[in-house]
Design a protein that fits this description.
By secondary structure, the chain is α/β, with parallel strands linked by helices. It has a single domain, classed as Rossmann fold, CATH 3.40.50. It has five helices and seven strands. The longest helix has 11 residues. The radius of gyration is 14 Å and the shape is globular.
Length: 133
């Protein structure tokens, strides 16, 4: 599950990494580059990516457990908290939650949300990675 599709690079990378993986990605803004990148990835990859034209805080529309939640959307504290809380009930035990731009000086809301949610984990590059107990 990805929140913040942007140009779909991350969704494509996730789909390319595992031929069995289905990627669902939420973003209320459809960027024009997205379709071009999906075409470049090819139909076998693009067919495993479902684009949802909605904000991530809308939450899941299915009952299936989520094993990866990648948050890279609005970056403000309130939105990140709302997104995490909307998806938390669907996160499988041991699921990974990765929040991008954790140390980015322009996006202090990510760090603030991690602190307020009391998430434990580690920094990996630009990500904060939390494993659901």
């Amino acid at each position: 599950m990805e929140l913040g599709t942007g140009t779909a690079w991350t969704a494509i990378a996730l789909a390319l990494a595992d031929r069995r993986r289905q990627v669902v990605t939420f973003d209320p803004i459809a960027r024009p580059e997205r379709e071009a990148y999906l075409r470049l990835a090819g139909p076998q990859v693009a067919s495993r990516i479902r684009l949802v034209a909605a904000p991530g805080e809308r939450g899941p529309d299915a009952e299936e457990p989520v094993d990866l939640l990648y948050i890279d959307s609005s970056h403000d504290r309130e939105s990140v908290i709302a997104e995490y809380r909307a998806w938390r009930p669907r996160l499988a035990p041991g699921a990974i939650v990765a929040l991008d731009d954790y140390d980015h000086e322009d996006f202090p809301g990510i760090r603030e949300a991690v602190a307020e949610l009391r998430l434990t984990g580690e920094r990996l590059g630009t990500l904060f990675v939390h494993r659901v107990p």
